[in-house]
Amino acid sequence: MNTIHCPHCQNIVGPSDIFDDRIYVKNLTDEVRILVWILTGPQYLDSRTIHVKQTWGRRCNVLLFFSSVENKTFPTIGVNTTEGREHLTAKSVFAWNYIYKNHFDDADWFMKADDNTYVIVENLRYFLSTKNTNELIFFGHHFQAINKNGFFSGGSGYVLSKAALKRYSTTPSITNKCRKDGEAEDAAMGECMEKLGVEVGDSIDSKGRSRFHCFDVRSHVFGHYPKWYYSYDSHGAKKGIENISDYPVSFHYIDPKTMYLLEFYIYHLKLYYDQFSPILQ
Amino acid sequence: MYNKVRVLCWIMTSPKNLQLKATAVKNTWAKRCNKYIFFSSETNHSFPTVGLNVSEGREHLTRKTVQGFLYCFKKYGQLYDWFVKADDDTYMIVENLRYFLSHQSPEQLVYFGHKFKSLVKQGYFSGGAGYVLSRGSLNKLAKVGLKNPFICRQDGGAEDAEIGKCMEKLDIKAGDSLDIYGRESFHPFKPIAHLEGQVPDWFYNYSYHGVKKGLSCCSDYSVSFHYMSPSDMYLMDYLLYHLRPYGLHPKDSTKKIFVPFKDNFR
What we know:
The complex is a heterodimer.
Chain A: H1 9-12, E1 34-39, H2 45-54, E2 62-67, E3 77-78, H3 88-103, E4 109-114, E5 118-119, H4 121-128, E6 137-139, E7 142-143, E8 151-152, E9 158-161, H5 162-170, H6 172-175, H7 185-196, E10 199-200, H8 217-222, H9 227-232, E11 250-251, H10 256-268
Parallel strand pairs in A: 1-2, 1-4, 2-3, 6-10
Antiparallel strand pairs in A: 4-9, 5-11, 6-9, 7-8
Chain B: E1 7-12, H1 18-27, E2 35-40, E3 50-51, H2 61-76, E4 82-87, E5 91-92, H3 94-101, E6 110-112, E7 115-116, E8 124-125, E9 131-134, H4 135-143, H5 159-169, E10 173-174, H6 191-196, H7 201-206, E11 224-225, H8 230-241
Parallel strand pairs in B: 1-2, 1-4, 2-3, 6-10
Antiparallel strand pairs in B: 4-9, 5-11, 6-9, 7-8
Helix pairs in contact in B: 1-8, 2-4, 2-5
């Protein structure tokens, strides 16, 4: 795959058996199965999507890519719509129905993410391990805007329970009234889920810290937010290390370089500690 | 390990860098050392910084460094096992530093850091990446080297190279800090620069063990990075001390990542 936009990136993460010596003391891969679908387009495959595939995408139980064009080698599933922001909702509607029809039994939870979202899959499993997938619920970074129930940011990724996905795909009496195309697929989804009676799940931890993030790590640590965020974010647009979970699930606007950097920080660089030394914060 | 491997960290700063850079060091990694001291050209009682009688400027870095070591020796030379010199844009992962040093002997005449070739036959260490002297080395440096301007240059030149020449004359060995996979631990640039191989051309001519990019650049137990801005440091603190992937044990198996430095020339 031609990585003209990030010529060195492919050298950073590859088959690195001798470096992958982490021990999983608690592996939830089989207990909490995750299907992730990435919303992308043919023009992004080389510059963005391939890097999702090579980094965090590997940790999902099932990983699917939806684009306006089918690509058998990548592979991407073709949605039969024109490229562009105005057709994101059509892509999303197609993807959810496709997944219900073809992969319903392959996972316990179903997540939509962008090709510039970075997901820490272990933390997603950890969070969902205490939730019930037979409940009508979905989770993500919540915005209180546009709809009565608000909606979850598409960029931060949002996750549907099995029950929610089933309700979505098997209730044409309602979904036929949901917006079928246009921009802001996340707001459209929020509105549709509201009509279907799916609960807006809360993912703030017991210490009041966020798990799903619609911006990149730096922005949340330092509070570099655009104006609109202060009226959209449901939890007061907090910032700083003390307001981000130690087990964050997602960040957005992550370019390929930063994806590999996060791989290094999260999965390779380690902090040595023995049971006798306090980790001084 | 905090009590077994006692580390004094001294950070070179300047009056104009106190508010942002030195403060970031103080708020992040410095407090993880057993003791930390900030040196500057001026004394500042509230920060606090110890004023060395040296003007600011690159031409006086050697003198500043020499004075810094002398001060540390006089006041703390017998109280700590290792003495780390860093810049105010160096980020040290102190727990990993202790882990590395736990394999070494504080009495041995050795010091560690990121090794450069040229200028000094046994190699010398990048100042920016931080370097660490054993108690034994600091003793000899202060008692013998710094008393004799023919052994140790008192000012001028490049600080890291001058200290390097002086250490070689004192028969203090430039130890190795590669891990068992051959990866460096002390780094003269930021993580992204090393990972991507986006380093300046001169680095290829200087780096003693060559330049590797990708995951081979950097030990999982890396000790230091350089050119870290204040926000890089706060971010590093979040990524290293807070963010974790659930279920992955923070420690490796019982594998030994470092080996003791053996002086083969005695």
